[in-house]
Structure formats: C-alpha cells, structure tokens
Design goal:
The complex is a heterotetramer, with 2 copies of chain A (about 350 residues) and 2 copies of chain C (about 325 residues). Chain A has about 350 residues and is of the alpha/beta class. Helices cover about 40% and strands about 10% of the residues of chain A. Chain A contains 13 helices and 7 strands. A 5-stranded parallel sheet of chain A has the order 1-2-3-7-6, sandwiched between helices. Chain A has a two-stranded antiparallel ribbon with strand order 4-5. In chain A, helix 2 packs across helix 12. Helices cover about 35% and strands about 20% of the residues of chain C. In chain C, helix 3 runs parallel beside helix 4, helix 7 crosses helix 11 and helix 8 packs across helix 9. The chains are: A alpha/beta (about 350), C alpha/beta (about 325). Chains in contact: A-B, A-C, A-D, B-C, B-D, C-D. Bound molecules: thiamine diphosphate (TPP) (2 copies) and magnesium ion (MG) (2 copies).
Amino acid sequence: MTSACSSTLDFAGSPINQALTPERKIELYSQMVRIRQFESTSLKYYQGGKMGGFLHLYIGQEAVAVGTISLGGADDHFITAYRDHGHALAVGMGMNECMAEMYGKQTGCSKGKGGSMHFFAPDKNFWGGHGIVGGQTPLGLGLAYGLKYLGREGCCLCYLGDGAINQGAFHESLNIASLFGIPVVYVIENNGYSMGTSQERSSAYNGCLAQRAEAYAIEWDVIDGSNLYEVRAKTHIAMERARKEHKPTVLEIDTYRYYGHSVADSKHKGGYRTPEEIENYKQNHDPIAVFKRLLMAEGVLTDALADQIKAAAKTEAAAAAKFADESPTPTIADISTDVYWESDHQTPASKIGHHFFND
Amino acid sequence: MTSACSSTLDFAGSPINQALTPERKIELYSQMVRIRQFESTSLKYYQGGKMGGFLHLYIGQEAVAVGTISLGGADDHFITAYRDHGHALAVGMGMNECMAEMYGKQTGCSKGKGGSMHFFAPDKNFWGGHGIVGGQTPLGLGLAYGLKYLGREGCCLCYLGDGAINQGAFHESLNIASLFGIPVVYVIENNGYSMGTSQERSSAYNGCLAQRAEAYAIEWDVIDGSNLYEVRAKTHIAMERARKEHKPTVLEIDTYRYYGHSVADSKHKGGYRTPEEIENYKQNHDPIAVFKRLLMAEGVLTDALADQIKAAAKTEAAAAAKFADESPTPTIADISTDVYWESDHQTPASKIGHHFFND
Amino acid sequence: MSRILTYREALREGLDEELARDPNVVIMGEEVAQYNGAYKVTEGLWNKWGDKRIVDTPISEAGFIGMGIGASMLGIRPVMELMFWSFHSVAFDQLVSNAACVRYMSGGLCNCPIVVRGPANGGTGVGATHSHIPEGLFAAFPGLKVCAPATPADAKGLIKAAIRDNDPVYVMENTLLYGNTGEVPDPADGDFVIPLGLADLKREGADVSLIAHGRSVIHALAAAETLQAEHGINCEVLDLRSIRPLDVDAILKTVKKTNRVVLVDESKPFGGVSAMVAMLIQEHAFDDLDAPIKRVCSIDAPAIYSPHIEHEQLPNPRRIVDKVLTFA
Amino acid sequence: MSRILTYREALREGLDEELARDPNVVIMGEEVAQYNGAYKVTEGLWNKWGDKRIVDTPISEAGFIGMGIGASMLGIRPVMELMFWSFHSVAFDQLVSNAACVRYMSGGLCNCPIVVRGPANGGTGVGATHSHIPEGLFAAFPGLKVCAPATPADAKGLIKAAIRDNDPVYVMENTLLYGNTGEVPDPADGDFVIPLGLADLKREGADVSLIAHGRSVIHALAAAETLQAEHGINCEVLDLRSIRPLDVDAILKTVKKTNRVVLVDESKPFGGVSAMVAMLIQEHAFDDLDAPIKRVCSIDAPAIYSPHIEHEQLPNPRRIVDKVLTFA
Ligand SMILES: Cc1ncc(C[n+]2csc(CCOP(=O)(O)OP(=O)(O)O)c2C)c(N)n1
Ligand SMILES: Cc1ncc(C[n+]2csc(CCOP(=O)(O)OP(=O)(O)O)c2C)c(N)n1
Ligand SMILES: [Mg+2]
Ligand SMILES: [Mg+2]
C-alpha cells in the first residue's frame, strides 16, 4: 500500500544510495531474495510438521528489514517483534541457526528455546524477536538509552506492527524518547492488518499512523516500503538525527504481507482481504520485483544473475533445512540451563541457596 | 497557570452560564467554599493524627470539579484519581461520610476501607477515587461505553493529572474512545506538577498536553481553571459532543494546587516551586476569589453573604470531624466483608467451596 | 440426553446461551467477532448476535479490559477474551487492582461482574512469554475467582456459572483441550450450570489420590490407567475444576481415603496452585498422610520452545507414573 | 567497627558504594533525583552523582522499566525504584516477560543485570491497590531473584549483592522499616555484601521455629520475647532474607531442631511465600514434624485502609503468639 503522505522523489539519487557500489546493491538484492527463499522453505517444512508453534512469514515486507538494516554501523542496534526472520537474516545471521531454531534444535540461534518468534544475535547487534505485541518498544528505547549512556554514536531501530501502536508501553516509550533525547528510531511496519483486523478497525489517527509522533513532539515520516531506495534514503535521515542529535523519529513504512498473519490464518485471502488486493500488491509493489527493475534499469542486475541469486538462495535454504533436520534436539537437562547467568557460569553466587525448585 | 492556548472570551455570557439562576450561582460558589473548608479541616485533623496514609489536598483546584460536575445530568457519570475530595463533595456526597472515611470509620462512604484516595458514591454517579495513576482512565471509558450500550444519553467525565497522561493505559483508552465512538470526556487537571516534577520534566508535547488528542483524531480544548464560567462553557460543549454524537474529547484545565502533592510533601514551597509562583496564583487566579469577584460584580453575591457561606462551611466541616471522631471503628470481622458480592449476599454460590483461606 | 461436543463447542454453547439469557452480556476481545476468534471459540457468534454483543477490540488489553470493568460497574456483564492468558501481563493492573479491589475499596458499593477467559497453558510451541500458567497467581488475590475446566461439560457448565456470578471470574482454558470431545447434557434437558467451588471426582481409587486441574486432569487419568494396568496401583483422580473458590472438603476427603497424594499442576513449582493445596492438606489432614505430599509440576524454567522437548517440561502421564511409583 | 544506621541510610550507603564502584550503575525512577526520593532512600545521591547517574522518570513504569531492561542487555546496570512495589501492576510484562524470560528465550545470549527496588508492604494506610505483597508472586517466575531485608545491615548487604548479581533481582523493602535503626559494619572494615540465598538465624530457640522475612521478622522476634517471658516457650527465628534463591537447608535445619513451625508471611494466605515453604518442609522433613505447619498471614481480603484496624489484618506479635499457643 502506498500512502497519500508518501511522494515519488528520486530516492535512487539520494547520497546514501548513490554511495552504494554495484556489488553492495547486488548484496542487498540478494538479501531480500534470501529472506524470501528462507521463508518459502520454512513454510514447506512447517507444513511438513517439522516446527512447532506459529510461523509468521515476512514475505512481501523484505525491503523494510533489508533497507533499514543496511544502514547500520557498528553502533547501531536492532530489535523487533515476532515476525523476525527478515531482520535476523538482514543483520547477518545464518540460515542454519535460524532454521534450526524453528526446528527446535540445539544448534538453533536460541538453542531451540525461543522458536520462530525469538531469534537473537547480540553479536550482530540484534536483540530479538519478541512475542508480546509492543513489548519490544521499551526495550528498544533502553538499547538506545544504553548507547547514549555509553557515549557511542549509534542508534536503535525498533520495529513494530501497525496493530502494536495501540499498546500503552509504546506511548510511554515515545514520551520518554522525546523527553530524554533518546536515539531510537521506531519503525512501524504497516502491512495494513493486525491479524484479521484492518488498520482502520484497530487505530484512530489523523493522517497516518506515524503522525501520532506529533503528540510527543517527535519527527515522523512515511515511506513506501516497496522501494528499497526510498526506505534507505528516509531511514538514513532518521538514523542520523538519532546518532548526531539524540532525537527519536517515528517512521511508518507501508508494506504488505503476502501470507496470513501466521500460517494458521486461513482467512487472509478472501476473508478480511480480497484476492485482488493481494494480487495487486504482488504485481505492482513487490519489493524484490521493484528493486530488480531498478537494478536492471541501472545495468547492475541481469535476469541471469537474478536467477542465479535465487537459485543460490534456494539451495542455501534447503541446506539449512537439512542442517536443522540433522541437528541434535535439546535434552531434558537443557530445559534447566539459560535461566540464570550465575547458574550457567557456576559462580559462587549460584551455589548459595536453592535457585530451582524441582521436586 | 493560564495557558497560551486559552483566550479571554466572555464565558459568563455563554448560554449554559446565562441559564444559571442567582441561587444556582450561589450554590456553585458555596460548593467551592465547602470543598476548601472541608479540606482545611481535614488537614488540621490529619496533622492531629486522626487519619492514616496520604492526604492529597484539592485546594486551589475547586472550580474544576465544581464547574464540570455542575453540568451533569441524571445520566452523566464521574470518575477520578486519588485527589478526589473535591469531586466527591461536588457530586453531592456529604461531608460526614467523606470525613469519616478518612478517619477510617464504619460510617465512612467506603466503610473505612478505601481511605482518602477511594471515595465512592455510585448512587450519585461517582465511581471513585482511584490510587493507581492513570488507572481510572480505562474505567471511565467503560462507564461511558456502558452508557452507550444501555442507550442512555449521557457521558462520563474522567479526570486525570498532568503526570498521569504518561501512563500507557490512558493512550489505549484514547484510541478505543475514538475508534468506538465512546461518550467520554477526559479532563486533564493540569496543576503543573506531578509530585515534585514539573510538566516540562514529565511530558513531551506539542503546544499543550490536550493536543495529544490529535494523535487519535479526538477533539480537545484548553481551559482556564480559575474561571468557573469558562470551565462550564467549554466543558458543556465537550459533554454535548459526547452525549449527542458519541464522540470523546480531551480537555486540559489549567489549575494549581496550593499545598504539596500530599501533606508529606515538604518541598513544594521553595523546593520545586517558588513561593512567588504559589503567591501569584493565590493572588491572581484563586478560583473562589475569581468567582466571588464575578458574582459581586453581577450583584449576586455580597461580602456578608460570602462570609456567611464560609462560616457555614466551616461549621459543617467541624461537625463532620466530630461525626467522624465519634463514629465506630471497623471490627476485625469487617475486614472480611465486601470481598465478594456473592459472600456478602450469602447466595447459594457463596456457600460452595472455600472462598477465604484464613488459617 | 447428551451430545458429544468438543471443548470449544461446549464453551461456545455456554456463551451463546448466556448471550440469549441476558442482554447485558457482551463478548469482547481481539479477533473475537469478524475473525471468529483466534482459536474459534466464538465462531459464528458475531454472525448471530452482531456488532453490539460481539466486539472486536484493538490490541490494547489494559484498555479494553479496563473498559469492561468500568462497564460492569454499570451493570454490563462483559466476557472478555484474552487471546492467550499470558497477555495478562499487559493488563495486570486492571486484573488485580481494579477487578479484585474495587468492591472492597468502595465498601461494597461497586460490583464487578466480569469474566475474563482464554487459553492458559504451555505446550503449544510458542515460547516462554506465551506460556505462563496463571491460575495460582490470580487465585492469590482475594476478590477474584478462578476456574480451569478439563472437559467439555465442565467447560460449558463453568463458563455459564462464571457469567452469572456477580464477582470477577477468570476462566483458564487450554488450547490443547479445545479439540477434545466429551458428553455435554442437551439444553433441552434444562439449564446446565456447574457451580464454582465444586471439585469433581473423575476416577475413584483406593491407593493414591491424584489431585489436578485443567489438562493435568487428563494426564492424571491416563497415568491412573497405566498404574492400574501395569502396577496394580489404584489411583483416585480429583479434578479441582475451580481454584478459587476451592473445594477443600473434597480434597480432604480423598486424602483421608488414600493417605497418599500426588498433586499434578502445570504451574512452575515455586508456588502455583499445588503448593497451596499441599499447605491445606498438611494443615487439615496431617494425621491422614502416610507420606509426604508429592508434586508433578512443570520443570522449573521459563517454557522452552522446542517441540521435541516441551512436553517433558510439563506434567505428563509418564512423569506422574514415575512420581507415584516413588511411594513404593 | 560498626555504626548505627537507619534501614534507609543503609540502603543509600549500599547504593552509593555501588555507584562509586561501577560507572554503569544508574539509578532511575519517579522522584529519585531532584526530589530525593518519595521515601528519601536516594536522598543526596543526585547532588553527588548528577543527572547521568540518578535519573528522574515520568510516571511510566512500563516505559522506564522496559528501558532499564533494554539498557541492561547492553551492559548498563540500572537500579530502578518503584515508588511502591504495588505499581508492578502497570509494568508486569516488563517484570515477568522481559526480565524473567529474555535470557532463556535467547538461549543464554542476553543478560539482564537489573535491580528493581522499593517498598512492598501493607500497613501504611494507603488501601488495597497500594498494599500488594508481591514476594511470592515474583519468586514464582524462574529467571527472577527476590529478597526482602528486615534489618539495616541486611538491607545494605543485599542491595549490594543485588546490584552485582548478573540476573534480575527484585528487592522488596518496607516503608515501615525505613526508619528502623541497627548496626551496619563500617565501610572501612571492607566491602560488606550479603549473598542472596542465605537465611539468617536471628534468634536461637528450641521449641518452635518461626520462619519469616521482611517486617514479619521483627514481629516474630517480638513474639518470641513474649512467648519466652510469658509462656516459657523458646522460639527460634529464622529470617529467610532471600526468597529466591531460598536457603532450604537453613529451613530444614531449624525444623529438624524444633519439630514445630509457624510461618509468618505478610502475603495473603492463598499461596504466598509461606505456602511454598510449607510445601518444601513437608516434602523434605515430613518425619521431623510433630504437628502441622501453621501460618500467620494477612487476613484474606484486599488491604483495608482503616488505621484502626489495618494492623490486625497483617501479621503482628499478638497474632503470632496466639498461633504458637495453639500448639499446646
Ligand atoms: C499483548 C499481546 N496481545 C495480543 C497478541 C496476539 N497477537 C500476536 S501478533 C498480533 C497482531 C499484531 O499485528 P501488527 O502489530 O500489525 O503486526 P504484524 O503481525 O502485522 O506484523 C496479535 C493480536 C500478542 N502477541 N501480544
Ligand atoms: C502507577 C503509579 N505510579 C506512581 C504512583 C505514585 N504517584 C501518586 S500521585 C503521583 C503524581 C501524579 O501527578 P498528576 O497526575 O499530575 O496528579 P496530581 O497529583 O497533580 O493531581 C505519583 C507519582 C501511583 N500512584 N501510581
Ligand atoms: Mg500489521
Ligand atoms: Mg499534577
């Protein structure tokens, strides 16, 4: 969905995009393709009974994670909700540990303890993967607070859905972010729906969702999420505002999910969304197709290379599924680790008193 | 404090004030005086050790409760925070049951179970008295929802402080109020401080606090709380919008408290507020003095009558203190009533299984 | 005459009957109306009852549960769905400060006839934050009532009792039971309500008492069969059904009969419902116990995701059998 | 050498020492800086340490506690004041889903070295919503640690241990103890830290064990004196100090010595810390008990306001004496 607020400037020409080498552009394109292939493969094996719980696919939204995260430097951090596979791969997590996590294996990024909604890679500045709607928004504030406290010139990108904006904790976070001058950028990934509820049925607002930021004297912008260049150009401004001026921003990135809320959502096609609406997005706003057209026009990408990238991603995802399948499952003993740092590290503190109460 | 947003129209001439008879004007004046005398008396006996817990005085803010509540009809309801004595008297509660409540006596409005922060009179459409900051805001939404559900043409006035606007539950309530078309009027009693924190140190905002309503496409207004006519004129518009159109409003009423946050607050004078600031308000914005001047100019009130009203209020408050003092204290058995409706009414349901677990 | 219904259908039938009975009953929650409910408990109700009675809310649990509580003070009887009971964490103030205390703080002037319902269990591969087990947590607050049905009939009977009750009642359902089937009396045979506070002896036995609630009852029954068949141990299974009010008499009765107790409770072992039941038994039936009361709870860690292992963290028939055998 | 300090001063000294020791320790909360704290625990710290280390927050508990948790993952060590622990209700998700679960759900990749502290008690005439007693509630969540000091020395030693601990620690103080005085070791004599998980035998005795924590310890000690003087009953008083980790060995040791137990616990009786302690005792010291474990808890209702009666709802020396005498 493109928003009325969003314009059609030449984002490819903005300095931050001009600075991209052809190699880097291909890399960004590849990342989007890898996310999509990873997820298609996940879907296949989810349906094959290899995973538990929910599977929230990111397909259709790839330019948001890839575009925004591509702007991250050493001191920029990321945190998101449960629809986290795209962000995880975009920060550089491997398909193996991600797939293995969904398979609930010891080799998973969270040792099979978190599952699809809870991917983490602090070494890559990625702090999850959070299942409680809106719950990540004060945490993202805290990461950004920490950066400022430590005197690092960085920011935190904190993602949330269009439905999540109605959680109180988000508003508390916005007030504090503005009041304290916290370098956090809230990215509303507006895919138009929270489960089966359209944006109109869940939120009251003026103009657009991001405009709620005005209530807290916070800058905001709306972005067409099908265009990776636009995502980068506008997000860069917000990130610089955070890093240099310690000022927060709320960005609303209009996007779309092709699949249901989770795989269990059978009503997403023909129920609360028309097949035409879905088809229109796929045909006219698909972020991978849009970027492909741009890169082909630039002479950076060819059909052959695109096919090769896709095939490689598919192979990589299949290999990840194999890796996950062959990995060992957690043991009963594993249930009891990672509860307390002190216990895991067998510190003196961990040896005083009972920490666990199993009969 | 008068806000920049607030203008100086002739509110006395607005129809809702024109409709006031001289008797009714005297009654409103008397109500403000009664609140102030009630509270002065409370302070005296609080300091005399007659009460427990906190005492949050309303003195300085009287025109807010009296002005807004004077507009209430049979189907209009009220709910507020812990600074609730003014609202309680304004809805028509007696000084006796209010004073006795603070004394922790059986004859208190809440049988001595709630205390100063928890006055209730559902028979007068007054639903408390709530101690958790912001906690009353979804409840007020619910009262208004209930009115609409039951098909009654009424609204709920829900009061909160300038510090309370930063509780998430309030924002959730605003979104729902706008989305569902709920006849609730949120009244921010902006006395400039939340405990020792000034408005500027607790809230980020554009223009004024009430303007946060725009984020939810809700109407808002700012009111000079020292002028009872203005309070009535502007609140009436909001209440009519709620009753007739089922639309919420956020009102910010600028006001001031003469005393500390609670009686325990020793820093309110010379700490976080200058003595000059306090003195200025008392001299130039005291709601009782302002209304007195207006009524004297109108020829409705004389100095003699004003003195008489004050003396009567003082006597009434002293009698209430005597009543409270002489009332019986709750017994140990009283601790265990009013927990469950079913138990209090000895229904069949209350006799099945253990409801209480005292050893 | 009774019919075979799923637990989900039984709940729905209970809701539907109460919607018909009392025009002030209103169902609200995320996706309960147009989407038919995340777990389809409310399927068809919006079609039948329309926008006024079946209300979709934004993802604002504090907001809409607080709204329901406020409305209940005026006489509305909201039945609010938490998509997962785990989301209690974002509406905790409403659940324990407003609902539990408003009657008391007003000296009995305010009533709060609400129901909050939804699934409250682990075992569905959704990780720690979605798998809290809050029966014991809420039962600890005087002013609240809590029940946890294990069968379709109990689900229907208890949801109806909850809706009619004039106090706040929190109904803890279980996603893993929604599809289970069982006999439910025919509405034609009369109004079917199971009072809160009444335990149900789901299996008679002489040797050991298994006391459980919710899905643990099903596990206890399975374990009892194994113990009978393979070890000749005859277990009695008491289903608490209601946690508060609690049928202390039924608990003491089975203890006096068997003199040996295993409590089965999906809660984490620090506290939970079972620590309280143990406290009551040792206090009131001290001399009837031949051995310490034992428990099968969840293994003491946040809920693990891995579908390969999560059922080992929870009580299950094998763990119950093993625990009973330690009496030998 | 030790000095006489108030409980409040002891806490403040502990905070001050840790602020000096580790530049990543930051104190935040409502009114903690410029106002010197609602209960003056942080008095003078803002003057000394300034805006960066002592941070006033808006009345947004979910927001600022979540912020502290996020910052802690990056290595900051926030010590967050809840003006009342009762306000946990508006930050419950942060307290039990983020802090308790983030380490687990990340397979050990995230650490959460936070402290949340503040008064957690009834008895101050502020009514039900401000008088929740949440020790047992939070101890029930694996991943969390909870302590409740009863004396100035314990307050200092435990707050310092809490700040150095790499896991989330919730320190439950008590407004009615802030002014109490007691000996606290001199900093010149070395770093004074009391490890979490270590109970303290506050009084030796032979006849009955009184097991308590927080202010109930003070009541237990007073009751013990009366019982000795007036009834010749010699009570042992064990102060748990830390609820999780819990010193189960010390509990069992005193039970084995006296064979009679009264648990004193300000919690409401359904659950609480004491139901868990009773469960552990009957499980691990079944044969050492000469009588059922008894409890003195708060009377089972929301907290009453009336200053004339509220101390009757709470454990107090008289109620403890009466309970001990029922053993006769
Ligand atoms: C507090 C809370 N309430 C409800 C849910 C259940 N839930 C999970 S995702 C979701 C919809 C969120 O929609 P949105 O924020 O738009 O994100 P999207 O799924 O579109 O990415 C809901 C209701 C939850 N996880 N947490
Ligand atoms: C959730 C919560 N946090 C903190 C408090 C403590 N507290 C009580 S009143 C108050 C200040 C509120 O200020 P404001 O909303 O401006 O109202 P005012 O006192 O000025 O009427 C605070 C921090 C509380 N009662 N509840
Ligand atoms: Mg969405
Ligand atoms: Mg204020």
